[in-house]
Amino acid sequence: MASRRNDRYDIYDDYEDEREAARRRLECRRAASGAQSASSHRQAPAASERQRSRSRDDERIDPLSRSLVGAPASVLSDGVHIPRPVIFGAGILLLVAIFAGVSAIERACTVQEEQPAAMQVDTGDGTAAPEGQPSAQADFSLLPADTPADVVSALEAKADDQRVVSIVNNAQGYVESFGAVSAANLIKLAAEDDEALDFVAGVLDNYPAASAAPIDESAKKGVVPMFYQWDTRWGYVDYCAGPIGTTGCCPTSLSMVYAGLTGKTDKSPADFAAISTQNGYAEDGQGTYASFLTDMAGSFGLQCEKFTPTTQNFLTYLESGYVVICNVGPGDFTDSGHFFVATGLAEDGTVKVNDPYSSVRSAKTWDPERIANQSIGMYAFRA
């Protein structure tokens, strides 16, 4: 027990020695602190002057540069010293890098915005392939084997026209859709009449059309306008189990006569085709009965006289100011039956015609006897 008490006292004595040593160290630090405080008071004016000088230097720096370099400088001044010119130079370099990056982004955006789109060529009538795309080639071996040589030659002469390429390469489609005879007529029409190419090239996709577009041009009373039955405004409408473009010569002829004698354009070929069908004058696969002209003319404000198709009768009516619809059989105008309008006489005594199926035949005048000799019937109109 005594041994343990002596140990405690020895420990206590050691603790007292340590406290005394700590007290002496504290007094030494207080004395040193007092001397340093007095020295600080003596140096304050000089430090204040240096601080004011530093503030003036900071004011000479661009505000943006100060905002970039001021904070790091104040932090580093308490540790590692970096010369102010170095910090200022680093700030300038950073600004240059930022502006260079922004300029690069703007240039990239500008290039992207000004990059031209792939050129699109509006071919309008479809005569050429779009730029950058290879043109399709016509395979004339696809035409029906019995296609006449002159028809093939005419198509070959227009082989660069993409509409012709489409017609030739889809020849079997015409046969399947319209039968061999009608397909042959369509292909022949494309070969003979450039103005009908749009219609023939588009008929597979557009027939039968649900409705027709109206006549959008004006008519002058006393002047018979030129309407084509294969005009795409109405040519795809169904009539007599086929498109008006191939079966609607009679209603198209009557539409021209009506517009020319009345000056009205409220009835298109499709309208007259519908009237013919509704009143029983149209037969599928056959066409329009000629009696449609005499029976229905009065309902349109017209007078119609049927006469025997002799050359003399024909000339008499034309010289008297009548407009004559001619119904012809096989010959110069058709291989079966066809209607067209004789609009008057040329100065040389030949007959001017508006053939709804052919811009080629409409572009020239005809010998009245030749027309009379091919006619089945003739119908003279006036208002």
From TrEMBL:
Ranges of residues in domain Peptidase C39-like: 224-357
Region annotated Disordered, chain positions: 28-65
Coiled-coil zones: none
Lineage: superkingdom: Bacteria
Bias (Low complexity): 31-48
Keyword terms of this UniProt record: Membrane, Transmembrane, Transmembrane helix
A Pfam family assignment: Peptidase_C39_2
Residues that span the membrane, as ranges: 86-105
Designated name of the protein: Peptidase C39-like domain-containing protein
Organism of origin: Slackia faecicanis
